[in-house]
Each structure stands twice: as structure tokens, then as C-alpha cells.
Amino acid sequence: MTDYLGMNKVELNAELDALRARYQEFVKMNLKLDMSRGKPCPEQLDLSKEMLRMVDNYIGENGVDARNYGLLAGMPEARRFFAELLRVDDPEQVIVCGNSSLSMMYYLVDLGWRAGFVDSVRPWRFCNNTKFLCPVPGYDRHFRISEYFGLQMIPVPMLKTGPDMDMVEKLVKEDESIKGIWCVPVYSNPDGYVYSDETVRRLAG
């Protein structure tokens, strides 16, 4: 991984020229590519077709109609299912929301920026040089949220076991302006890695 922060101006300009030349090579190929990320192919979408046809009772065990607005934390059945899937002992620790994790992530960063959290000294917008750890390679839309809120992005290498936790722990210990880290623990984007148990425990610690 190139250490751009360690380069001088001459080296940075040379790197920029090299990248621009490489970009122009791709432009000349006149490629027609769909660069959307995370879009399942029709065959993948068809996998759930029969499951959708099976549903004929929309009332949950708590009496809530699943087709309408529900509980903020999600249906009890869904919370139990994902607790088992994610090996969480207590379903009360699981929240099942809509189908967009990106919306939830945006909301939490926005909340931290505008109002702060329960243990925040002040909202992030009043802090100097607020930072976020970004495992790389990672999801560009996560990075775009960081960019939108003016958060300095600190790259952390992504290993097959998850983010390089030695680096994560060192950075967090040395810099209190780091407020978070982007994580997709199961089938991370784009590599598809699943964080190891040790990585998850160290993140939780």
C-alpha cells in the first residue's frame, strides 16, 4: 500500500502523473462496464423467489402485521434468527431494520457529527480534525460518507481475518480524534472476507 502521507511534493506529483497516464489508458479502451457494487445477478435474485411465494401469514408472534410499520428493533422472530446466525447469545442485542445498512451507517455518522453520542464530550463538528479508520480495500460509499462530513480517512490494511488489528489498536490508543471504523464483518466489500473471532473480540474490546 502506497504511503502518500510519507511522500514529498516531487514524489506526489510523479505519482499523480503516473496515475493520470494509467487512467488515460483505460479511457482509450472505450470499455462499457457496469461498475455498480453489490447488485445480485438474476440467478441470485431467483434463489428467494419460492420463499416469497410461501408467505401467506403476515402477522408476527407479537401480533404486528409485517406489511405495516413495525417495532423499531425488528420482529422478535427475525431478531432470534439473526442472533443464531451471527452467534449472538441474546437476541435483545440484535436490531433488524430495513434492507439498507448504508442508511443506518449514514444516520449514525450524522448523529455523531450533529449531536454526539451519550459518552461524547461534544458533537464531532466541534472537534478538530475528526478521523475515521478505513480498512482498504473497502467500500467507496462508506468513504464518501466520511468525505461528506469532512472526516479525515486513515487507511488500515484489510487482512483475510479482517482489519489489521495491531494497527487499529495502535492508532486508537495514540489518537483520541479517531471516532470510528468502517466495518462489514461478514463478507466484507469487496474482498468477501469474514472477520475472525479474534478480530471481532478485539474490535469489541
Automatic annotation (TrEMBL):
<dbReference type="InterPro" id="IPR015424">
    <property type="entry name" value="PyrdxlP-dep_Trfase"/>
</dbReference>
<keyword id="KW-0032">Aminotransferase</keyword>
<dbReference type="GO" id="GO:0004069">
    <property type="term" value="F:L-aspartate:2-oxoglutarate aminotransferase activity"/>
</dbReference>
<dbReference type="InterPro" id="IPR015421">
    <property type="entry name" value="PyrdxlP-dep_Trfase_major"/>
</dbReference>
<dbReference type="Pfam" id="PF12897">
    <property type="entry name" value="Asp_aminotransf"/>
</dbReference>
<protein>
    <submittedName>
        <fullName>Aspartate aminotransferase</fullName>
    </submittedName>
</protein>
<keyword id="KW-0808">Transferase</keyword>
<dbReference type="InterPro" id="IPR015422">
    <property type="entry name" value="PyrdxlP-dep_Trfase_small"/>
</dbReference>
<dbReference type="InterPro" id="IPR024551">
    <property type="entry name" value="AspAT_Ic"/>
</dbReference>
